[in-house]
């Protein structure tokens, strides 16, 4: 990212092309140039960065801010959330990001994640038990979606009878329906009311769960160091939203990739110890986030010879970076023997995913249990008839019909 002469701005790209066939679309853009002008996720102009080294550097470059206050006037709109849900790590830079991440890390410990291994396994087995007599099902609805929501609720300490339909709320936020804009507002209101009740209950009756621990950290920290009430609620929302949404799609996409590569699925069944490294390659091959969270340069920054003005929206394409042959040879081939370390599916730099160990744990257990239980698992529709979510933000299936 050096200061060179600014070339002419690249032509505007129709994002519909990226929805129809994202990897082919991103590959064409990546080979045409490192930076392109597109209509972003909110319909406004954005700069799309496509090559691995540029994306990786930008993820860790402090000049690329996550704070929406650094967006130029009249620029990025994004999803409108109230302060009680918006004051989270995905909208923060240091020093606030450093303070909040340090405090939540005191509650979200490796020990707490490790203690979830058996509950994850029990939940996976129970879901597979319910599936077994059916012979065919939608794997998203029956397995990939209920598993992460059960785990996140276990982590946060949400009683089973209090677990509302989180999937409909997150769908309304991630893929808004233009014909029914009130759904998004209703989902935001429902989430806000739910977390307000939940925090009040945990304060009155603390338990051995992450939310109680976060409340204790917030209430016991030095006054100048502690979380605000909005930050506490926003963190709970982020853990639920990101921990659920991304893991559903990671499990679903990984399952599709394995079913389309039966020899590699058979190799995993024969040697379950390979599941850990396999999850890394599956996250690279078809991860749940085609784009990193948007960024705003705090000064003019040159990327791949293109100078992006301060305040304009920058989208870093993880999907394009992960299929960049300059970094991953033969990138369009799933290779569970590949060394996929260095993939960016869980971020890079100070914004590396706080819940990465949990996402890996869930996906490894989910895939291992599924492959072990159903050796004849296969798609119940042709692969080209699978329906993907119409979203630039997420890469995930609307449904995954399978038979076994």
From TrEMBL:
Gene3D superfamilies: Cytochrome P450. CDD domains: CYP107-like (cd11029). It comes from the Bacteria. The keyword Metal-binding applies. One of its GO terms (molecular function) is monooxygenase activity. It holds the Pfam family p450. This is Cytochrome P450.
């Amino acid at each position: 990212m050096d200061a060179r002469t600014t070339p002419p701005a690249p032509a505007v790209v129709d994002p519909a092309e990226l929805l129809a066939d994202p990897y082919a679309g991103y590959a064409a853009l990546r080979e045409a140039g490192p930076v392109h002008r597109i209509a972003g996720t909110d319909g406004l102009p954005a700069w799309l960065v496509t090559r691995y080294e540029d994306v990786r550097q930008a993820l860790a470059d402090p000049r690329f801010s996550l704070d929406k206050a650094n967006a130029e006037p009249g620029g990025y709109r994004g999803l409108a959330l109230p302060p009680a849900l918006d004051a989270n790590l995905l909208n923060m830079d240091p020093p606030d990001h450093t303070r909040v991440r340090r405090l939540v890390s005191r509650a979200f410990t490796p020990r707490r994640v490790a203690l979830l291994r058996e509950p994850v396994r029990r939940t996976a087995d129970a879901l597979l038990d319910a599936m077994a007599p059916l012979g065919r099902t939608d794997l998203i609805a029956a397995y990939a979606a209920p598993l992460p929501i059960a785990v996140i609720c276990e982590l946060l300490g949400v009683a089973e009878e209090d677990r509302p339909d989180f999937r409909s709320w997150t769908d309304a936020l991630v893929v808004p329906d233009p014909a029914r804009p009130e759904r998004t507002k209703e989902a935001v209101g429902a989430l806000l009311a739910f977390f307000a009740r939940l925090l009040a209950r945990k304060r009155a009756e603390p338990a051995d769960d992450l939310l109680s621990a976060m409340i204790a950290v917030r209430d016991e920290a030095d006054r100048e160091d502690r979380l605000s009430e909005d930050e506490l609620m926003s963190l709970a929302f982020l853990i639920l939203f990101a921990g659920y949404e991304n893991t559903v799609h990671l499990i679903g996409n990984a399952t599709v990739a394995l079913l389309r590569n039966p020899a590699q699925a058979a190799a995993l069944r024969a040697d379950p110890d390979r599941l850990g490294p396999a999850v890394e390659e599956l996250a690279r091959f078809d991860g749940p986030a085609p784009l990193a969270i948007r960024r705003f340069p705090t000064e003019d920054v040159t990327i791949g010879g293109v100078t992006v003005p301060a305040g304009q929206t920058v989208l870093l394409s993880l999907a394009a970076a992960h299929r960049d042959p300059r970094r991953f040879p033969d990138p369009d081939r799933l290779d569970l023997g590949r060394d996929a370390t260095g993939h960016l599916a869980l971020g890079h730099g100070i914004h590396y995913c706080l819940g990465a160990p949990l996402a890996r744990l869930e996906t490894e257990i989910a895939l291992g249990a599924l492959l072990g239980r159903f050796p004849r698992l296969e798609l119940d529709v042709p692969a080209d008839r699978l329906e993907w979510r119409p979203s630039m933000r997420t890469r995930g299936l609307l449904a995954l019909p399978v038979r076994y």
